[in-house]
């Protein structure tokens, strides 16, 4: 109870400081009996990642200065996390409104950020030259996707599935340390689930209607809302993003070391 009170006070302070939206969960009664830790991690996500988000980051360093590398890593990670907070609110809004279609879209995007953060950590762990690091980091900084006339720049962004495969390997490593197994394709498998529910597929069509005998029958709004509860086992694994991202960030910032003594910046929530 004392710990929960401290977390609440911390969140209230953060919201007051920056007036950042932090929508509260309104779970169906069936889910309140479910895995409480996962939903508690969603509730406390703001306080869990706030210390890793920075702004006013000075990026003006010589090209051969290691501080330039660390400043850009700080910028990219901060951008990922700030976006993840808005996606977290989209997840909560979808659960609160019982909108399973919107929920899969938001969870899919949040899952991609897990892969991106793990990929940044993996790159920081590589024993490579500063030049090689910068070459490999360019897609994080300048990459975009697509071939449209509206695309900005020519640098191709990192492949999402490749990053999620790195997240799979990261989770296997974490699980082994905890004496657990069976997580070899955790992120890629659940990402496929979210993708099918987010695109025009048989799975996404099944969210709004079913074939009974030889007749397609559309679901009523109440039947659609009930899917938030009934399909919990199908989308539940996607909720773990909010539990694992803080741990990835902790490792990234261990690699950045004393960056605050070397790089002009300030915490977004201070």
Task: Describe the protein.
The chain is mainly alpha-helical and about 270 residues long. It has one domain (about 1-145, about 155-195, about 225-260). The protein is about 65% helix and about 5% strand. It contains 14 helices and four strands. The chain has helices at about 1-20, 30, 35-45, 45-50, 65-95, 100-125, 130-140, 160-175, 185-200, 200-205, 220-230, 230-235, 240-255, 260, and strands at about 55, 210, 215-220, 265. Strands 1-4 form a two-stranded antiparallel ribbon. A hairpin with a 2-residue loop joins β2 and β3. The longest helix is centred in the first third of the chain and has 31 residues, at about 65-95. The mean pLDDT is about 85.
Oligomer: single chain
Mean pLDDT score: 86
Which structural class is indicated by helix and strand composition?
Answer: mainly alpha
Taken as a percent bin, the fraction of beta residues is: under 5%
Report the total helices: 14
CA radius of gyration is 20 Å
* Morphology: globular
Query: In whole angstroms, how far apart are the ends?
Result: 26 Å
Number of strands: 4
Q: What percent of residues adopt helix (DSSP H or I)?
A: 55-70%
Order of helices and strands: HHHHEHHHHHHEEHHHHE
Trace the largest sheet across and list its strands: 1-4
What count of domains describes the coordinates? 1
